[in-house]
Amino acid sequence: MFTTFLLASVALTLSPGPDILYVLTQSISNGKKYGIATAAGLVSGIVVHTTLIALGVSAIIKQSELIFTGIKILGACYLLWIAFQVYTTPASINLKSNNSKKKSLLSLFKQGFIMNVLNPKVTLFFLAFFPGFIDEKLGNVTQQIYLLGFLFMLQAFIIFSLVSILADKLSLFIRNNNTFSVFLKWFQIVVFMLIAVLILI
Predict the structure, then answer these.
(1) 187 Cα distance to chain centroid
(2) pLDDT tens digits, residue range 11-51?
(3) ∠ at Cα 13 (31, 145), nearest 5°?
(4) How far apart are CA 99 and CA 94, in angstroms?
(5) Which of 20, 102, 118, 166 is deepest in the core (most CB within 10 A)?
(6) Which DSSP string corresponds to 71-127?
């Protein structure tokens, strides 16, 4: 039972989506440490989705098209706001310099957390899959739900961290070339706008 759940979770995590794109972008732009901080924030948001499942709120969200649409719009607006923030910053960022302005690790953690919480597709995944892996004969359903949530968080953090490390290795080839600063700026803008669109689809 848990093996099947884990395989399904890994498949979702590896599929192109807002979370993995965000981790990839931050890792290429700032380094693996920042990508991993983002990953930690993203997986921490899973606690919220797990709690919603445990409390039955997710069922209400699914049944209410208005609430679900509101969450999608809110999430997309937040991502577009991040894209605008990137747009208003100078394009000439020196990636070789340690003094280049970067978001703090805590800031990236918070952004990752908010992005995950406002991603309704995660809630739908949990709502669709969790019930099939709950066995009332095993006892406390709430504990089972949180166990599944923990497994999802663990595999997601491992995968995101590996993505961060690989992306950081690739960025070493371009980090010493200042001409990539403009590219990275617009790359982030396009990615955030794309993620906003993906959430609304």
Answers:
(1) 17
(2) 777 765 678 878 888 888 788 899 999 999 999 999 998 88
(3) 120
(4) 8
(5) 118
(6) HHHHHHHHHHHHHHHHHHS-S---TT-TTS----HHHHHHHHHHHHHT-HHHHHHHH
CA 96 to CA 89: how far, in whole Å?
Answer: 17
DSSP letter at 139? S
Q: Which residues touch 168 (CB under 8 Å, ≥6 apart)?
A: 27, 28, 31, 32, 35
Residue 56 burial by Cβ neighbours in a 10 Å radius (0-12, 13-18, 19+): exposed
Residue position matching structure tokens 């809630």:
123
Q: Is the pLDDT of residue 185 over 90?
A: no
Q: Which amino acid is at 77?
A: C
Q: Dmax of the chain from CA atoms? A: 61
Q: What angle do CA 125, 64, 110 make, to 5 degrees?
A: 55
**Overall residue count recorded for the chain in this entry:** 201
